[in-house]
């Protein structure tokens, strides 16, 4: 019995040794071709990481893109933004060029009437299309301050990298200006990073930041950092844009208006009639803490038997949820005879909510911001 046990043990031990020997003999390393691809991919990864670090540290960025205008001709748009989110320029929202001024947390848009109509503001589209409108970033496909400021853009592009890398050798191409770039992803999800040092992000698809909202900004933006004289020019242009805002419409608030206590006063033998009314306004939808004003337009139609009808218009500004007195007058041509006339006045008023802009205060804050950036 003991001899049998010894024989079995020897056989099992021999089998184990044989298995170990086969495993060692069968191991193999990467081929030369695979090793080359691995090196190329590591170089690409290093370039992308360096480009994103440079991007997030930029004092300001400029975005450039090309769209087709109403006549179908190419039109170049440019948008500049500081690392703190102060932005100025034009962006293509759903194919429409929209001008933006975004200083110190405020956001003002200028677009034609068709843009506002397409966003459900048909009643206000005509007047909004004539000037600047204050709104908030959440009303846009992408809020520039939240997604396009240098640190925010770097974070957004980093988050998209997992879907951009492909197996095989990195894809390269040479641009029209001679710049050689790594191209990650493709189509509406492309990111281009320069091959040569210093590595930088050359262009990207806005859909990388948001598949839905970003796609509404078109296929791609070219991007580059701003510094030195360009940064100083950015500051100068920003000051001029703030001065040009005037008294923007408040795109979020609405005003209802009532005419009260109308009084008609006509002067004998002169023919002039003056209507005085109280105009009450009520504002809804304004942002908490804001102090909007209501721009009022009073129109009065005054008619008299056998003298016909005339109208007058006057305008004024009132604080939100207040009542002010307004008046306007007309003058009739009286015949050269003694007569009495019954005069009737029909006053109507409309109100537009406006967002007051303290240009001086905004420019003072911008001066501090740009000084810290070197501009």
Short key terms for the protein model shown above:
three-stranded antiparallel β-sheet, 35% strand, alpha+beta, single chain, outer membrane lipoprotein receptor (LolB), chain A, twelve-stranded mixed β-sheet, signal, 375 residues, 2 domains, disordered N terminus, Immunoglobulin-like
Helix fraction, binned, reads: 25-40%
Radius of gyration: 35 Å
The level-1 CATH class of the largest domain: Mainly Beta
Low-confidence stretches: 1-27
Order the strands across the largest sheet as they lie in space: 7-8-9-10-11-1-2-3-4-5-6-12
State the end-to-end CA separation: 96 Å
Count of structural domains: 2
Regarding quaternary structure, what we see is: single chain
The secondary-structure class comes to alpha+beta
According to DSSP, the number of beta strands is: 18
SSE order, as H and E? Answer: HHEEEEEHHEHHEEEEEHEEEEEEEH
CATH architecture term of the largest domain: Clam
Outline: elongated
For the report, how would you describe the main beta sheet? Answer: 12 strands, mixed
The fraction of residues in strands falls at: 35-45%
Number of helices: 8
Average pLDDT value? Answer: 88
């Amino acid at each position: 019995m003991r001899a049998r046990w010894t024989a079995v043990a020897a056989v099992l031990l021999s089998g184990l040794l044989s298995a170990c020997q086969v495993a060692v003999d069968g191991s193999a390393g990467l081929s030369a071709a695979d090793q080359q691809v691995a090196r190329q991919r590591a170089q690409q990864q290093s370039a992308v990481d360096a480009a994103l670090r440079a991007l997030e540290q930029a004092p300001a960025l400029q975005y450039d893109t090309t769209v087709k205008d109403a006549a179908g001709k190419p039109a170049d748009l440019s948008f500049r933004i500081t690392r703190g989110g102060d932005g100025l320029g034009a962006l293509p929202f759903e194919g429409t060029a929209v001008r933006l001024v975004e200083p110190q947390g405020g956001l003002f848009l200028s677009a034609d009437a068709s843009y506002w109509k397409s966003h459900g503001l048909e009643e206000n589209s005509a007047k909004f299309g004539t000037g600047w409108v204050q709104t908030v970033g959440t009303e846009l496909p992408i809020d520039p301050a939240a997604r396009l400021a240098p640190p925010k853009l770097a974070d957004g592009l980093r988050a998209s990298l997992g879907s951009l890398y492909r197996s095989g050798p990195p894809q390269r191409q040479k641009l029209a200006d001679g710049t050689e770039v790594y191209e990650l992803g493709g189509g509406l999800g492309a990111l281009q990073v320069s091959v040569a040092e210093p590595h930088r992000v050359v262009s990207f698809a806005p859909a990388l930041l948001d598949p839905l909202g970003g796609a509404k900004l078109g296929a791609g933006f070219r991007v580059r950092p701003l510094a030195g004289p360009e940064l100083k020019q950015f500051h100068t242009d920003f000051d001029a844009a703030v001065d040009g805002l005037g008294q923007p419409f408040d795109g979020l608030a609405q005003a209802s208006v009532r005419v009260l206590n109308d009084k008609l006063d006509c002067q004998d033998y002169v023919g002039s009639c003056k209507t005085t009314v109280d105009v009450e306004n009520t504002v809804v939808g304004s942002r908490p803490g804001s102090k909007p004003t209501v721009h009022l337009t009073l129109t009065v139609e005054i008619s008299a038997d056998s003298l016909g009808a005339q109208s007058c218009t006057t305008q004024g500004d009132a604080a939100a949820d207040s009542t002010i007195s307004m008046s306007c007058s007309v003058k009739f041509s009286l015949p050269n005879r003694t007569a009495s006339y019954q005069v009737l006045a029909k006053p109507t008023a409309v109100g537009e909510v406006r967002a007051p802009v303290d240009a001086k205060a905004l420019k003072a804050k911008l001066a501090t911001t740009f000084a810290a950036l070197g501009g």
